[in-house]
Amino acid sequence: MDTATDPPVIAISTSSADTSTADASPQVRFAALIEQHRGIVLKVAHGYCRDPEDRRDLVQDISVQAWRAFPAFDPSRSRFSTWLYRIALNVAISQVRSSSLRQRHYAPLDDESIAALPDPTPRDPHEADAGVRALHAVIDRLDPLNRALMLLYLDERSHREIAEILGISESNVATKLHRLRQRIREQLASPASPSPAATRTR
Q1: Global pTM?
Q2: What does each C-alpha distance from 76 to 7, 166, 167 come to in angstroms?
Q3: CA 10 centroid distance within chain
Q4: pLDDT in tens, 43-52
Q5: Hey, what domains does the chain have and what are their CATH numbers?
Q6: Angle 139-82-180 (CA atoms, 0-180°, nearest 5)?
Q7: CA–CA distance, 25 with 57 (Å, rounded to integer)
Q8: Average pLDDT of the residues in 73-79
């Protein structure tokens, strides 16, 4: 990810307060936490938006929604990263489904994330490049929920955390991931280009 072009996460004024104190104001605590975990917001924005302006808007929307929900955040019930991932993905999926962000703005995942997929690596570099492009095309056509599932999988989140973020059972996570990986492998092995409908898994 090119951090030089990443849009900034919404700024919450912290003045000169000490963010390490337990009695810090909500604004100070939120600013410290959102800065520490800003990579989650940026990763989701990159995963759902190709257009830089849409990406910037999504980052802002996620940050605003997280700030509004922050008073209800309970660190004894979940980690901030899990809580933030849930909000970020909910906002992104909601915007995609409401057509605020169009399917043509879906961004291909970066090569480092693609490399994390368990798939044989071709010996020929040219063949490898073609494989990456084909994988980009397949993942590009995933529906919003399966795209979220793949994003969390590539981020090496545990089945338990994925289940908590997406609100499904761990067994459902395992089943969906197995089917999704199998479907992707089958489509990569097929000479025909996958259609959007073909890439949607149940």
Answers
A1: 0.67
A2: 31, 19, 18
A3: 18
A4: 999 888 878 8
A5: 1-105 (1.10.1740.10), 108-202 (no CATH)
A6: 25
A7: 26
A8: 92
